[in-house]
TrEMBL record:
Keyword terms of this UniProt record: DNA-binding, Transcription, Transcription regulation
Native species: Listeria grayi DSM 20601
Pfam families reported in the protein's UniProt record: GntR
Signal peptide: none
SMART domains linked: HTH_GNTR
Coiled coil: none
GO MF terms, alphabetically ordered: DNA binding; DNA-binding transcription factor activity
Domain (HTH gntR-type): residue spans on this chain: 7-74
Domain of life: Bacteria
InterPro entries in the record: Tscrpt_reg_HTH_GntR, WH-like_DNA-bd_sf, WH_DNA-bd_sf
Name the record gives this protein: Transcriptional regulator, GntR family
Amino acid sequence: MDSEKRETAERKCYRILKNQIRTGELAAGTRLVESALSKQLEMSRTPIRKAVGMLAADGYATYEDYRGATVKDCIVTKESYLEIIEVMFLFVKEAIGKICDKQLSIDSLSWRLDVSEGREAYRKMGLEGFTYEQTFIYTILQAIPNSQYNLIVKELFLKLQEFSDQDVRSLIDRSLDRLIVNINQLFQALDTRSKQDAVAVLESMLNHQILNAFR
């Protein structure tokens, strides 16, 4: 029973601190001092120590010499969002090359949506543009089974969904109509195995996001 209580307390502490990091209440560089957190959260130091260790293991905090645990810079700004997208699009570009060069099959029927259909589908499901991007990238990467790529993409999208600031969320929402059009164009190019056209669409998608981010 005692172990269950400690586990419940540390999970609760973890959720509270993670949410404070996500909202910016705990800013990057803030020290996670056990005694102060114990007083603030009205918990003993043992579950707090474990929760901080969990935060560090999940990449939300780091241990520094002579300072103890501090909050990592987790907030995704427009600049860091574009860096993340560039990395993932490099994976997609490699997959496009293999799909076209090796004549690999890919299921593109589910992407035959016009803008209004795409918007309506995502509105009904309560999903964000992040989900549309993620599903698109996963679909392409299926052509080149690479567990490392999939793991990286999964972790990056988890970070986007949890820690993107409002500017990034607004950018995704503004770009969704164009994204739906571009993804349709990209799959049309893949259907004809036109690597040049598919890569051109992919580069256009990235350029649009960059320009849209700083309007």
